Amino acid sequence: MKINRAILTNNLCYIEGRKHIPAGVMVHSTAVPGVMAKSFISSWNTAKPGGSEVCVHAFLDNTGVYQTLPFDMVGWHSGGGALGSANYRGYIGFEICEPRDLADKQYFNAVKNLAVQFVAHLCKTYGILPEKPAVISHKEGHQLGIASNHEDIDHWWPKYHNYTMDKFRAEVKALILGSDSEEDDMKEVIYNTLDEVPAYAKPTILKLISKGYLNGDGKGNYALTLDMIRVFVIHDRIGLYDK
Ligand SMILES: [Zn+2]
Predict the structure, then answer these.
(1) What CATH topology corresponds to 3-183?
(2) CA of 189 to the centre of ligand 1 (A)
(3) Does the reported pTM lie above 0.85?
């Protein structure tokens, strides 16, 4: 997956630089038809774009994906106040640029397919399940009480292209499953209980459990993969869990 880097280093959100552990993805669209990613990247690389405290992790249009914040940094995309917001619950938020004509099928297909690939990539990288409530639109976030009252992306995808977030999640899931079976026909080892976790990672996993960051199924089963365990240990060494 090619991701172009265009980090918004002058934006207050980046300057504040609060870290999070990615746990979900929120899909937005800009509600500014005809304005493409490069324009947003230049107009948002300022402290408060248009006077607002806003920043997203990426913009996407029919020319590609442009990463505008590190994915392990809190973004300001869901509104809805401070701690009740998806912003502070690990959601990576990205904006899809809208075509001048929302009924433009060719543009829709191009950006929708790119968004499927991008979200599948994020889900695989961060161990995010491509299901509700981990992968949602801004509107669904509002319905769940973790985002401001915006319509995106329902004013576009379902309305003009009969394409729902459920269809989107199904495509993301299919892509993840398909690519897994191509890359790896060995069955992945799952570490369910604390006893099964490799010794070097036990202090980290214990810390995550005791801080309430890792809950599993509530019965002591955590369904960890080795990749997840490795990332947790690295984050722990960085000190992310000691705040
Ligand atoms: Zn939005």
Answers:
(1) Lysozyme-like (3.40.80)
(2) 37
(3) no
